[in-house]
Design brief:
About 40% of the residues lie in helices and about 25% in strands. It is an alpha+beta fold and about 425 residues long. The strands form 5 sheets. Strands 1, 2, 3, 4, 10 and 11 form a 6-stranded mixed beta sheet that branches. β17 (about 370-375), α12 (about 385-390) and β18 (about 395-400) form a beta-alpha-beta unit.
Length: about 425
Amino acid sequence: MAIGIDFGTSNSAVGFFKDDSPCLVELEDKRQTIPSAIFYDTEENAILFGNEAISFYMGGCEGRLLRSLKSILGSALINESTEIGYKNIFFKDIIASFIQHLKNKAESTVGYAVDNVVMGRPVWFVDSDEQADSLAQGHLEEIARKAGFRNVVFQYEPIAAALDYEQSINKEELALIVDIGGGTSDFSVIRVSPDRRGKIDRKQDILANTGVHIGGTDFDLKLSLEQIMPLFGYRTQTRSLFPGDAILDLPPTYYRELATWHKIVFLYNNRALQGVKNIHYHAEKRGLVDRLVRIIQKQEGHRLASDVEAAKIVLSESDAASLSLSYVEKELRASVSRKKFEGDIEREKEGIFLKIKECLNMAGVSSSKIHTLFMTGGSTAIPLIAQACRNAAPSARMVAGSRFGSVGMGLAIDAGIKFGK
């Protein structure tokens, strides 16, 4: 028995075969996806996952919430630890706990132990750095084995999405697979066909793979920095304490960390708090920086990041969104604009467009030869990003897959091919 695990930056899914068909494990409250979140409850000495983890954190329980852990793969942080309660826990062990939770859920569903797994991976963990990319995959394999898997193989996430799409077609097509997730955007040009389903060797059908480290967390970062962090003093200046003092911009580091999911935990210590208080002392607009001090003191950074992410989702359907920040300051609200957001992510949009064109060039095909543009990943919901993908292959038929489930389903298919159903 084998399963497929889509360990995502924002959400995760697990696929397996049931009655000779691929399907997804119900991971939480009958949902087939789970937020990639883990909460260490230091009051009860318990570990919680997914929405339950977020709920306990939001409810004010003492402990530490961690999200976007996949972003640590490929970075120097993978060999570091973080303080939780009165002990330090290595990030590798934290990720292993989450992967083991997914394994346990799968085993509860199928009724017996699962030793084999196909792990999804982005085309690049680290953009265009083969050595660092190989090291990141090695770390993920080590983590999967630590979680209890004996046999671990990998599949590119866009190829997994292609295997899912292939189940629905009745003739051969040339498909451009676009997978824009929380941490990366991955692209593949692949020949899909009913006649090729289930074949182990598909190398001849994969014309090109490429990817770029742009995803939902980058869009969250831009929205937070440009439209929320100014309320906390971002891009304001120091004051002149003595005649002749230079007026400087406040250092952006703490603001960027507060706006970056996997770096928020590094603000929850005395050293960071003292650094922020020092900024407050020198700030011209001390009332704004008061809010920065307060949110770090109260360890509400993840709550703010969650509210920003929710506002981003609203902007996919509306021209504006409003956030209540009363947990920072009574009656404090923030309004965000879709028009400004789209302007702020123009560079990221262009990066995705150019990477798709590069993928087509690598495949040696023009965009007019693409029959289908298959879209998956949560960030394909952003209209500006979806339009950029469409512009890269304007004559292709656009098909929307399951934003959070297509890769998991494809990994289940791949697991069935490689290990048997």
